[in-house]
Write a structure and sequence with these properties.
Blueprint lengths: L6 H37 L5 H33 L1 H18 L6 H29 L5 H25 L8 H6 L4 H10 L4 H9 L6 H5 L2 H24 L3 H9 L6 H27 L1 H21 L8 H12 L2 H12 L5 H29 L4 H9 L5 H4 L14
């Protein structure tokens, strides 16, 4: 029988997981609001609007590629050495390398650092989600999963409000990267003082031979679940970064001249919807069932993404309300995923499986973002056309989900 943590210990685990994901969100939201300012400063006279969009795509692709590698490697590490150790290491990774962005002198240096930041960004999600899911009772998991999803987008919201008050401009952007190094303190606390998952300890004690999580995920017993998890994690990730995130540089290019903080306002409206959506995603999945919920979210995300890019524009009256609605619906996925992905895999490979399923999507996202960057150039630098075209990826979710196992009402498998 698995020993349960005390309530104070469970609350400490939840607080650390939420904190890690909150600052994960800060790192994810950093370049959408800072990218054009960084490029204008570092490129100088060579800067053009098209070059700014191209570098935004490169920075995003580097972060996604790093997050994919980090999520797989550090998720695997969480199954081998423990959730808390891997979580603490991941937080230290994204904090230290983000802070180094304050002293870069070239675009290429920033590009390399965004990849390294991504290693930690990717590692936090599977370890935080697995740790929290395993330390709380099954009946609490929809709420816990909602909090996990909301924390990630809460970080984006927090950053947007900082950028709204203290503007990020070509003359003043380095300070935000210095600020992004602060979560290193949380990483040290997690490494030193956070209790480990009792389920993970029990699984390691019961194992007759050393576990090789990544190898087991591709054996016959789990291969189908692994592939399905990868597809379900990839679709919303590609949609979010290859499509939705183009609204921020679009808002900056159209409204930045009228109001320096308009990009922060836009990201704030989206992130407010995203916090609500990512919290409610798990509740919707518990209410409607995992598969039906995912299918409906896919259809709604497609419709609202097209409405945002083709039905309105920055500075128009309807733009910010539609941005809010798109953020709410398209991020229901990110409350659904931390509830569903841990249900696909047994304890001995849960962090590796969740990390693989969630983060292979980031490889696809990196390719998708680079493809979107090329499409952006081919469409003559049109933000709405590239965003709307890439937003059609959400429709795939309404098809793929019907091959996934229905896990509603089932306990986590040991």
């Amino acid at each position: 029988m698995t020993t349960q943590l005390s309530r104070p210990a469970r609350l400490a685990v939840l607080a650390a997981a939420i904190g890690g994901l909150l600052f994960d969100g800060v790192e994810l939201g950093l370049m959408p609001v800072a990218s054009l300012s960084v490029s204008q400063d570092l490129l100088g006279a060579a800067y053009t609007p098209q070059a700014g969009g191209d570098w935004f795509a490169r920075f995003t692709a580097a972060l996604m590629a790093g997050a994919a590698v980090g999520g797989i490697v550090l998720g695997n590490l969480g199954d081998v050495v423990g959730r808390t150790r891997a979580l603490g290491i991941s937080i230290l990774f994204y904090s230290m390398f983000a802070g180094m962005g304050a002293v870069v002198q070239t675009q290429e240096q920033m590009l390399g650092l965004r990849f390294l930041v991504g290693l930690g960004v990717g590692g936090v999600w599977p370890n935080a989600v697995a740790l929290a899911a395993e330390c709380w009772p099954d009946k609490s998991r929809p709420i816990i999963a909602g909090l996990m999803g909301a924390a990630l987008n809460g970080g984006i919201l927090m950053l947007s409000q900082i950028a709204r008050v203290w503007h990020i401009t070509p003359d003043s952007w380095r300070w935000i990267f210095g600020l992004a190094a602060a979560p290193a303190l949380l990483g040290l606390v997690v490494l030193v003082g956070l209790p480990e998952s009792p389920r993970w300890r029990a699984s390691r004690t019961a194992a007759r031979a050393p576990t090789v999580p990544m190898g087991e995920l591709f054996r016959a017993a789990l291969l189908r679940r692994t592939v399905i998890g990868v597809l379900l994690g990839s679709i919303p990730m590609v949609g979010a970064w290859a499509a939705s995130k183009w609204m921020i540089p679009w808002a900056d290019s159209v409204g930045g001249g009228a109001a320096a903080g308009y990009k922060g306002v836009t990201q704030g409206w989206w992130a407010l919807g995203a916090v609500l959506g990512s919290f409610c995603g798990a509740q919707v999945a518990a209410w409607l069932g995992r598969r039906r919920a995912y299918a409906l979210i896919s259809v709604g995300s497609t419709a609202l993404t097209l409405a945002m890019f083709l039905g309105t524009a920055p500075l128009q009256t309807l733009f910010l309300p539609v941005v809010f609605a798109q953020g709410l619906v398209a991020t229901l996925f990110f409350g659904w995923l931390p509830l569903y992905l841990p249900e696909l895999f047994p304890t001995r490979v849960r962090a590796a499986g969740s990390g693989l399923a969630y983060n292979v999507g980031r490889f696809a996202t990196a390719a998708g973002v680079l493809g979107a960057g090329a499409l952006f150039a081919a469409l003559g630098g049109s933000y709405p056309l590239v965003g709307a075209t890439c937003g059609l990826v959400y429709l795939l979710g309404a098809i793929v989900i019907w091959w996934a196992p229905e896990t509603t009402g089932q306990a986590l498998a040991d």
